[in-house]
């Protein structure tokens, strides 16, 4: 990494922003008074298409460049972020069929575009250079907006971005004269954006981040323990994402058009490009309204086409894709060795997370106690398209005053995988009413960690026996009495609710192996016992138990679990 890092600006002179740079869209965010805001470019876009287009030697970027996919596809570069730092033979060019094609140059990816104007031949633009040009425009927009030169950025990437891809990204940014303060993973940036809300209660919790984008969907299970984020499991999918919904709508509209005019608009590249752009627009409109207009002038053979589509029809057309999202999210929870009941929050981010059907399906998968943070299911949800940029901007404002070397040392481990306990630890108090289990340290707590609980002693006081144990949870399933079958009149394509045999599922504690026992003698009536559990980095456990306000206590050390 170091050979790419130029000497950056002095910390006191930095102007740092948060950036997300996706295959489909990018965003810029800036923090003022601890509040991160996504800022618009000169076209007024906050989600800025990751597209560059060259017309007569002029470079266009963002929404203007995306519109050139209809008239100037060969000189338009799109869908390239994931190609950074990859070998040509490893990349999937599927999403570049309707724009400049990736070509092999020295084993890596480049594009041939006429970027000079006049009669000049096409130039070869390596993917790193395309990224540099794009990032320069993006940061240029931020500089214009803020009225001061942006020097530095925190940028987010998917969790499976390789070291080579990260290096290529840093180089591309440095070549555009942007210092990369830190690379943060997308799901952690999304969690940071939520945790920074003034009303946020930072408590131990397990979060699923579903980042549903244009060309890919990435899901992660993140444990948040005492301000440390541990990524427990991730899954990546390239079959179910926004473009697949566009594809389903394109087929639907093409068939309708064909019925009416007997021409297939998919037979011609320009018609296909129009069909694609308008299908995406209709899809986006359906996230807000129950109906959307699909309307294209001269779609094919000179015929205009204008129809409306409603949300229910869209949900039927995209059904397979929606089911794919459900499997993806269920799969990642399993992969983390957890149950849906263990999940406290689902943070939905990425443009596709605006779609109400997806959030409603997730609502049906998780128990009521799980918060589904999406516009359709939560009044306090943050715009899913803005989460990662905001998280990056918050991180940028935290670290911009540090020297580059300190940033690397101080902040990397906090957001990467750290050691954690694989079972919960809790205390059993043996009292007149039998054993009672109190969880002290939840499963997946990052170590070293220290937690204290206070447990009421029996009313009359006396001797209290406590046992420190490992705990696991297990899911108790009780079948409800069969209900009378309601008439199936629900038109709303609720294809996900499978409620024939309704089950009640709850999480109950299962006590595992005993770690320590202690007897606290002669506690006064109404007294309390305080138990502190300290797990060190080598997973050894120290337990201290004492009467609150009392003298002395019991202390013991156990070796690693
Ligand atoms: P990727 O890297 O996966 O290609 P990205 O991270 O660059 O994607 P995002 O902006 O997160 O891009 O997601 C883009 C997708 O979200 C597109 O398919 C777009 O059509 C879709 N999208 C954006 N806004 C909405 C909306 N309001 N309703 C439905 N879909 C939307
Ligand atoms: Mg993304």
From TrEMBL:
Provide a GO CC annotation, any one: nucleus
Compositionally biased residues, Acidic residues = 487-503
Concerning InterPro entries, the annotation shows: ATPase_NBD (IPR043129), HSP70_peptide-bd_sf (IPR029047), Hsp_70_fam (IPR013126)
Q: Which residues form the signal peptide?
A: none
Question: Which parts of this chain are annotated as the region Disordered?
Answer: 478-503
- One Pfam match, given by its short name, reads HSP70
Q: Which UniProt keywords apply?
A: ATP-binding, Nucleotide-binding
ATP-binding listed as a keyword: yes
What GO terms are given for molecular function?
ATP binding; ATP-dependent protein folding chaperone
Describe the family membership recorded for this protein in Swiss-Prot or TrEMBL.
Belongs to the heat shock protein 70 family.
Q: What is this protein called?
A: Uncharacterized protein
Q: Which organism is it from?
A: Cylindrodendrum hubeiense
């Amino acid at each position: 990494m170091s050979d790419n890092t130029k000497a950056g600006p002095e910390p006191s002179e930095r102007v740092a922003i948060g950036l997300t740079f996706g295959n489909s869209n990018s965003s810029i965010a800036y923090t003022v008074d601890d509040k991160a805001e996504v800022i618009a470019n000169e076209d007024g876009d906050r989600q800025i298409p990751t597209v560059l287009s060259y017309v007569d030697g002029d470079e266009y970027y963002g929404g203007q460049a995306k519109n050139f996919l209809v008239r100037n596809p060969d000189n338009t570069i799109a869908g390239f972020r994931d190609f950074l730092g990859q070998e040509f033979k490893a990349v999937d060019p599927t999403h570049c069929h309707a724009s400049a094609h990736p070509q092999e140059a020295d084993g890596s990816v480049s594009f041939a575009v006429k970027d000079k104007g006049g009669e000049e031949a096409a130039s070869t633009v390596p993917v790193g250079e395309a990224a540099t040009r794009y990032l320069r425009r993006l940061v240029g927009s931020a500089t214009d907006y803020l009225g001061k030169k942006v020097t530095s950025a925190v940028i987010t990437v998917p969790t499976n971005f390789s070291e080579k891809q990260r290096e290529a990204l840093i180089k591309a940014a440095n070549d555009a004269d942007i210092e990369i303060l830190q690379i943060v993973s997308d799901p952690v940036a999304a969690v940071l954006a939520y945790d920074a809300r003034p009303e946020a209660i930072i408590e131990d919790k397990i979060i699923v981040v579903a980042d549903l984008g244009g060309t890919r969907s990435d899901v992660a299970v993140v444990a948040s323990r005492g301000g440390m984020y541990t990524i427990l499991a991730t899954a990546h999918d390239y079959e179910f994402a926004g473009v697949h919904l566009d594809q389903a709508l394109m087929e639907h509209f093409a068939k309708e058009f064909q019925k009416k005019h007997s021409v297939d608009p998919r037979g011609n590249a320009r018609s296909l490009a129009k069909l694609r752009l308008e299908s995406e627009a209709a899809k986006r409109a359906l996230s807000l309204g129950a109906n959307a207009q699909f309307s294209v002038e001269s779609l094919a053979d000179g015929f205009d086409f204008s129809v409306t589509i409603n949300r229910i029809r869209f949900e039927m057309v995209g059904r397979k894709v929606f089911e794919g999202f459900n499997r993806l999210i269920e799969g990642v929870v399993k992969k983390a060795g957890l149950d849906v009941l263990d999940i406290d929050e689902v943070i939905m981010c990425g443009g596709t997370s605006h779609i109400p059907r997806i959030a409603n399906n997730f609502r049906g998968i998780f128990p009521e106690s799980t918060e589904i943070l999406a516009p359709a299911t939560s009044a306090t949800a943050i715009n899913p398209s803005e989460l990662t940029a905001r998280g990056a901007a918050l991180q940028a404002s935290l670290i911009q005053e540090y020297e580059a070397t300190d940033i690397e040392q101080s902040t990397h481990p906090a957001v990467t995988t750290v050691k954690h306990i694989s079972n919960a630890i809790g205390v059993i108090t043996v009292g007149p009413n039998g054993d009672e289990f109190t969880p002290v340290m939840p499963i997946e707590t990052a170590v070293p960690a220290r937690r204290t609980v206070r447990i009421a002693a029996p009313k009359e006081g006396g001797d209290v026996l406590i046992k420190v144990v490992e705990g696991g949870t297990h899911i108790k399933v009780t079948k409800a009495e069969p209900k009378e079958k309601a008439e199936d009149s629900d038109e709303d394509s609720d294809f996900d609710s499978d409620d024939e045999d309704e089950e009640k599922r709850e999480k109950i504690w299962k006590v595992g192996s005993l770690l320590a026992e202690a007897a606290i003698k002669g506690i006064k009536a109404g007294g309390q016992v305080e138990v502190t559990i300290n797990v060190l980095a080598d997973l050894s456990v120290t337990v201290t138990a004492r009467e609150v306000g009392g003298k002395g206590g019991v202390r013991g050390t156990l070796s690693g679990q």
